[in-house]
Amino acid sequence: MTRNLILILGDQLSPGISALDGADPGRDIVLMAEVLAEARYVDHHKQKLALVFAAMRHFAQELRADGWRVDYRRLDDGLPDLAAAVEDAIARHAPDEIIVTAPGEWRLWQEMQGWRQRLGLPVTIREDHRFLCSREAFARWAAGRKTLVMEPFYRLMRRQTGFLMEGDQPAGGRWNFDAENRAPAQDSLFLPAPPQGARDAITAEVLALVARAFPDSFGQLDPFCWQVRREGAAAARDRFLREALPEFGRNQDAMLADRPWMYHSILSPYLNLGLLDPLDLCRRAEAEWRAGRAPLAAVEGFIRQIIGWREYVRGVYWLKMPGYVDENALGAERPLPAFYWTGRTEMRCLAQVIGQTIQTGYAHHIQRLMVTGTYALLIGVDPAAVHRWYLGVYVDAYEWVELPNTLGMSQHADGGFLATKPYAASANYINRMSDYCQGCAYDPKARTGPRTCPWNALYWDFIARHAERWGLNPRMALPLRAWNAKPEAEQLTLRAAAAAHLAALDAAPSYAP
Ligand code: FAD
Ligand code: DLZ
Ligand code: SF4
Hints:
Bound molecules: flavin-adenine dinucleotide, ligand DLZ, iron/sulfur cluster
Order of helices and strands: EEHHEHEHHEHHEEHHHHHHHHHHHHHH
Distance between the termini: 45 Å
Structural class: mainly alpha
Helix content: 40-55%
Radius of gyration: 24 Å
């Protein structure tokens, strides 16, 4: 006799997940299913597939060890999608009711609205309590605001959680220490050791499965860089707190060739899967400051990313879906250049970031925002194509967090709802923040000749193309004035160089998975 069938999704791997609230191991059955539809709805990086499946299999083991009955369906069982997996489980267990925690993505949430009718059983979709701010609370906060700025939301979250608060005032007298970050890249940086991937038998079996079932998917499978168990994620967390947190922030925007990890926490894959709890992580980071082992600026910066940015983008996602994914305020229509899938380009900055993405499934925020993101923005790639790329290639990518970052923050496709100013920059920014330009086929400073870096012409072309729009945006007054002040001959040269670059891109063979 089964009372409830409890479906746990691949990114709901938390023992405290709300679907298990009030459940009874004697009468309820947990269902977990590896299904083709989830694996194939975008071209996922091989390491992302392996991470999700291996983490799911380990979580099923963890639940069984805690006394739960788990019906675990493997990819080889050939179930096409989650509804089919539930239907199949209903036939075998005859439950009275289906219980699930709300999925992170609209696509699945929308599909589940039709499950009651399809399955002929009550389906209860519970709130996901792993987030600080519910969808409703965010909608209440956002109501009536024309543009949403993260900072006031972050302060509200600080007050609500009490993190880094002294009474009702922020510790250190300031809410935000961001101004102390942004140091450029230095060759002499001492970097913490790179993260290590899991090597257990379950992971080995999953790696073989992914190699066999998804040979043409994006990315390199070996070396596998990720932890797949709660204990492994906790070890990665502790290593970050000990070795990298004290330096977090200061070098956050710096980029160095062949150094993918820098001082970043590399914890987003584990937070998003449910292997780490965001509040617990923030508590531990705060404790490092209180114990004098990490400076306030670093700890504030880290906590802001989690209770600020992470919660805020999720709120925006649910506020703006389902229409958000179709927004294209700048009317961008170019296909994504084929080299986004191969890394084969003479532009070293892009080759580095895409190459690292192929090797690891990871790039840090500024690499995503200011290299692959800015280039796509400048050349006017269709934001939906950019979105599908980011959703597939990063191991931490789920639409609720990826879409606002890509479409809103990086591509300005929501017309400035999320970020009032586009993240556009010329080669100068990349040259200042990275060592990529050293050894590039192009020269970031050259003004004429074959080594002139394409980013500069593309940047000015982008400003000129949308000049009318920027005229209405006070935050774009400076670059617009600089463009208008350029002699006409220089303007023509820059626009011709951009047109030549874009024509070469259009003539290159295209690729879409
Ligand atoms: P750290 O720099 O160490 O930051 C700590 C934590 O803060 C992260 O683990 C993450 O949980 C959170 N965080 C930091 N910045 C953001 C942000 N802007 N939005 C939400 N959470 C944030 N993050 C994802 O988790 N999944 C994505 O699919 C994703 N796609 C992105 C796409 C683009 C175009 C851009 C510009 C950013 C994207 N981000 C995404 C945000 C950010 O780049 C990653 O969270 C971060 O690089 C993860 O690495 P980390 O754990 O080392 O982060
Ligand atoms: C990302 C992913 C993948 C690749 N595979 C599965 C799967 O086979 N079964 C599953 O339950 N979940 C998977 N996931 C995670 C889901 O895509 C995720 O739960 C939804 O996108 C909602 O965030
Ligand atoms: Fe990128 Fe231009 Fe620098 Fe080359 S010179 S790395 S293309 S910014």
